[in-house]
Specification:
alpha/beta, Rossmann fold, N-(1-d-carboxylethyl)-l-norvaline Dehydrogenase, domain 2, Thiol Ester Dehydrase, Chain A, 6-stranded antiparallel β-sheet, 16 helices, about 20% strand, globular, binds nicotinamide-adenine-dinucleotide
Length: about 500
């Protein structure tokens, strides 16, 4: 049975938490006094489903159920994890946490999404305040991995550790803030930027669109992979960080490093920002902007994944955990072609011809090869992998949106470094052949970065399967070359 978590508040952030928990297989009990919450949270979960279809092909657990309840007490009944995302008002949060904590089991973790309120003050009226922590996420919660954890004076370390484990399981990256400080680390940085952005707009130095351009065409691109300090280290050149700091030391005395002016939020400033923001949005609705934002975030995270950096490294670890936790594929017997991978053709895979774009066939075969490597026991974390060095793809039928497909895999041969593989992609409904891929894989010692012989125990497992598969009929398309010449009859 799926584990149940409680959410208090289902606005922008609570809705994002609902999506992350539900898509990771948790049942969610949510309390929000707003009668419209059910609709807005459901819309948020839909956004997240769309984003996850693009984000990963790893086997997510079956979705959890989302239930809205009438009181905070009902939400927290018998759950071991509570995430509070009510409005940012200290008195309201303190009262809500106090009441909910009285109704919860004593060791249930209580985490608050507050952007900057101090945990010592929030936990003050709770029963068992030791199980409280701030857990500050970023919007959209279902895509951005960062969550800042900060305990108060009465929080015990075990609470932070338990909360961090829960968030890691959701594909997130906990950052433990060791010193209790207003607005933690990330919001202090964001506030500094925001304060200055408002001043620039208030003083007519720049419009809101120009401020955004100053971020997104420059440092904003760097920040996702390197943050600030590592970027500056590189900017110091060969001489590194000390040189950079010495060079820029005198600048710390210049007036612009001491900017702290906060413009007053007058009606005039508010009108100006709203008008400029309307012009910047160019008539695009919030829904449209959310989709553009999510698609771009997914692309950035995928880019980072290929370099094992930042949020991309977090996604890669999350996917490895999902594959490891997935139930073993049925019928993975070695005495028939292996059935190790299935896929559903996603609407966004479809090109202008009405069937899946050709890159998606290679993606499905690549995933089947990954499944094969897991099946034979390649120890990816142990520095051993197979790289694909050659692929011959044949298209036989069309894969249309929503169709369920399955790959069968036959090992045609191997030696100590190479593995000769033949995949067939079938429609699950009627068994029709859709495509085939013949591949040569090369064993690589990933730590040394070169081809190498596979370990004897791995070769033994491969040899057993290759031996059994040798008795199967050779696939008709095996060994074909791309050619205009008439096909030679076998
Ligand atoms: N918006 C962000 O970018 C962001 C980022 C990180 C953290 N946060 C923090 O998350 C929390 C929620 O912010 P938000 O942006 O989702 O605000 P929001 O206004 O979108 O949502 C707040 C929700 O809480 C509900 N609510 C009101 N009273 C409640 C109560 N007594 N019990 C339970 N729910 C109640 C409201 O109906 C609303 O749906 C705040 O603490 C905020 O600082 C916000």
């Amino acid at each position: 049975m799926a584990e149940t978590v409680a959410l208090l508040g289902g606005g922008v952030i609570g809705g994002g938490w609902a999506a992350r928990f539900v898509l990771n297989g948790f049942d969610v009990r949510l309390y929000d006094p707003d009668p419209d919450a059910e609709r807005t949270v459901a819309a948020m979960v839909d956004n997240a489903r769309r984003a996850y279809r693009r984000l990963t092909l790893a086997p997510l657990p079956a979705e959890g159920a989302l239930t809205l309840v009438a009181t905070p007490e009902e939400a927290v009944q018998d759950v071991s994890f509570v995430q509070e995302s009510a409005p940012e008002r200290e008195e309201l949060k303190r009262g809500l946490l106090a009441a909910a904590s009285r109704a919860a089991v004593p060791d249930a973790i209580f985490a608050s999404s507050t952007s900057g309120l101090l945990p010592t003050r929030l936990q003050a009226a709770m029963t068992h305040p030791e199980r409280f922590t701030v857990a500050h996420p970023f919007n959209p919660v279902y895509l951005l991995p960062l969550v800042e954890l900060c305990g108060g004076e009465r929080t015990v370390p075990e609470t932070i550790e338990r909360a961090a484990d829960v968030y890691r399981g959701l594909g997130m990256r906990p950052l433990i803030v060791r010193t209790e400080v207003d607005a933690f680390v990330a919001d202090r940085l964001l506030e500094a930027l925001w304060r200055e952005a408002l001043w620039l707009v208030a003083e007519d130095v720049a419009t809101v669109a120009e401020v955004d351009d100053a971020i997104r065409f420059g440092a904003g691109l760097r920040w996702a992979s390197m943050g600030s300090f590592l970027s500056y280290r590189i900017a110091g050149g060969e001489a590194g960080m000390r040189h950079f700091m010495e060079q820029f030391g005198p600048a710390l005395e210049l007036p612009w490093t001491k900017l702290t002016a906060v413009p007053e939020l007058t009606d005039e400033l508010l009108d100006k920002i709203v008008a400029q923001s309307d012009a910047q949005a160019g008539g695009r609705s919030i829904g449209e902007l959310e989709r553009v934002r999510d698609d771009c975030l997914v692309s950035v995270i995928h880019g980072l994944r290929s370099h094992d950096q930042g949020a991309g490294a977090v996604l890669a670890a999350y996917e490895r955990a999902l594959f490891a936790a997935a139930p073993a594929a049925p019928a993975a017997e070695d005495d028939a072609p292996l059935r190790l991978h299935t896929a559903v053709v996603q609407p966004e895979w479809i090109d202008y011809n009405g069937h899946a774009h050709e890159s998606r066939y290679l993606q499905m075969f690549g995933d089947a090869t990954d499944a094969l490597l897991r099946h034979v026991g390649v120890d990816l974390d142990g520095g051993s992998s197979y790289f694909t060095v050659e692929t011959h793809l044949s298209h036989v039928g069309e894969a249309r949106a929503g169709e369920r497909l399955g790959v069968t895999t036959q090992l045609l041969g191997h030696d100590e470094k190479r593995l000769h593989v033949f995949h067939s992609l079938h429609r699950s409904d009627d068994g029709a052949l859709v495509a085939t891929a013949e591949q040569m894989l090369l064993h690589v010692d990933t730590r040394a970065g070169r081809a190498s012989a596979a370990a004897p125990e791995l070769l033994e497992r491969i040899a057993r399967i290759t031996g059994v598969h040798a008795a199967l009929p050779r696939p008709e398309r095996a060994g074909r070359a791309v050619s205009l010449a008439p096909r030679a009859r076998r």
